[in-house]
Amino acid sequence: MIKSRAAVAFEAGKPLEIVEVDVAPPKAGEVLVRIVATGVCHTDAFTLSGDDPEGVFPAILGHEGGGIVEAVGEGVTSLAVGDHVIPLYTAECRECKFCKSGKTNLCSSVRETQGKGLMPDGTTRFSYKGQPIYHYMGCSTFSEYTVLPEVSLAKIQKEAPLEEVCLLGCGVTTGIGAVLNTAKVEPGSSVAIFGLGGIGLAAIIGAKMAGATRIIAIDVNPSKFDKARELGATEFVNPKDHEQPIQQVIVEMTDGGVDYSFECVGNVDLMRAALECCHKGWGESTIIGVAGAGQEISTRPFQLVTGRVWRGSAFGGVKGRTELPGYVEKAQKGEIPLDAFITHTMGLEDINKAFDLMHEGKSIRSVIHF
Ligand code: NAD
Ligand code: DAO
Ligand code: ZN
Predict the structure, then answer these.
(1) Where is the Enoyl reductase (ER) domain (predicted)?
(2) Complex ipTM more than 0.90, yes or no
(3) Is 64 among the catalytic positions?
(4) Which end of the chain has fewer surrounding CB within 10 Å, N or C?
């Protein structure tokens, strides 16, 4: 057992508590990682709110981290002590039906136990005062030390600053990947991006990389527009400035609708708007935002009959172990400006401030340094 400083979510809807937890050594096929830095994503706030159907408490949240391998369990072959890694909430075992399909980045190898906050053997490595603490999304990066399955870690270049590339563990990769892998946006396309948090801003970078010529950035918080412009958005729309439904505004701006749209908020009404602002015959809308438990999407089926396509994307369709080193390389070359996302940095003791800043719309990403 080792001691680890961690921000624990003891109950839904309550601030995280900084305590010293016990971390058990990695079992066979597992790896102990020292987390150097972690981003705070909207999904952490979503789970903390109690709206996540898979949310179990008490748990150590966090899934956007960067760290260094501290110890490996029996049988671990792809990682060694000292390797730099990014934890993956979407594992990549390369052996399951999903991994071998060539059609998806979803992997079934650790999925069942991960969704219950447990390690693959059905137990947890964290405890506090003798009571078990659950894992979160297979990552639990809000702890100085965490244990993950080997298949849930991407080995990355040691030269890359973990305080920045941790953002590739979720938000930035998700937004870029959704554009490049899921929607496969073509050069010359028009794109509408709903929501300009970490995910939406990354989708703007992806749209620019794909050669989109019109990138319409939409947010109810106009303070997000400057950063969107800096990253490549060409037009800016605040739905609050218009009386018509936002889909109608976009359709009028674009002679019938955009080629591609992305919902980066998690609002089911906005998901409908994002679909309906797509061009008849070919427009495709990708849902990235995660909606609350029990919520449903709706539209008139005629929207699909007349050629619009509705898709969804998890972790940008990216296979983490295989593809993340390439994303890190792009960040190192300046093609993915990670520093643009980091609006705040703080120590673990201030992590609740990161959640406040997010709820107040004042941050893109707060990065916690351990
Ligand atoms: P965020 O809170 O930082 O950003 C959301 C943005 O949406 C904010 O700028 C907010 O002002 C804007 N917004 C809110 N309501 C709006 C409305 N009605 N119209 C337009 N804009 C509106 O969140 P984030 O970290 O960027 O995450 C965005 C969503 O993506 C969340 O639902 C998160 O859970 C989800 N997510 C999905 C994946 C995936 O793999 N699919 C990965 C990470 C995050
Ligand atoms: O394989 O059934 C499955 C689920 C995989 C989980 C993918 C999660 C994607 C959305 C969650 C937001 C992540 C921050
Ligand atoms: Zn797999």
Answers:
(1) 13-368
(2) yes
(3) yes
(4) N
